[in-house]
Design a protein that fits this description.
The chain has one domain (26-87, 106-173): Up-down Bundle (Hypothetical Protein Ta1238, Chain: A), CATH 1.20.1200. The chain is 70% helix and 3% strand. It has helices spanning 26-47, 51-71, 78-96, 112-137, 141-173; strands at 12-14, 20-22. Strands 1-2 form a two-stranded antiparallel ribbon.
């Protein structure tokens, strides 16, 4: 089977169930940005060495695929996404106790891993904005709640991880 179907040559793409939308539709933009984020997380996984962080990021990719599945028109797996939100919150809490109190804005810089986490954070925020645009016109409020909670927590997770990896570099230099 060939990878190309030529069905999108007119600027449309198919959703789950066969419905076609313009590739510029907010729904397509939302899941396209989440797809971009999952690929970027794959790049981040390739750069970090800590196995537990790689595993956690892989779980995040799976959570994002749940959201993409929903955005493609398939029913959302609410229970899995709800559990994923709780996992993110627990991980954020676990990391935050290792960090100094935040008293000022920080620049998105530091070592390579810190910068990659900051980029993941900003791509997540864009995915969140695109998803909000889609849900402004969508009827499914349950999907909206869990998807937006997940994306919001995810950007917070990437922020604390950027701070953690920056702290690790500073401590390594002392």
């Amino acid at each position: 089977m060939k990878i190309y179907t030529k069905t999108g040559d007119n600027g449309t793409t198919a959703l789950f169930g066969g419905k076609r939308l313009l590739k510029s539709d907010p729904q397509i933009s939302a899941y396209g940005t989440i797809d971009e984020l999952t690929s970027f997380i794959g790049f981040l996984i390739a750069k970090i060495t800590l196995i537990s962080d790689k595993a956690f990021l892989t779980d995040i990719q799976k959570g994002l695929y749940i959201i993409m599945t929903s955005l493609s028109g398939s029913p959302i797996q609410e229970n899995l996404l709800r559990k994923s939100v709780l996992k993110l919150e627990n991980k954020i809490d676990e990391v935050e106790v290792k960090l100094p109190k935040l008293t000022h804005f920080i620049l998105p810089q530091g070592n390579e891993i810190t910068a990659l986490y900051h980029i993941a954070r900003t791509v997540t925020r864009r995915a969140e904005r695109e998803t909000v645009k889609h849900y402004e016109k969508a009827k499914d409020s349950k999907s909206k709640i869990y998807a937006l909670q997940y994306l919001n927590r995810l950007s917070d997770f990437f922020f604390v991880m950027a701070r953690l990896y920056n702290k690790k570099e500073v401590l390594a230099r002392i």
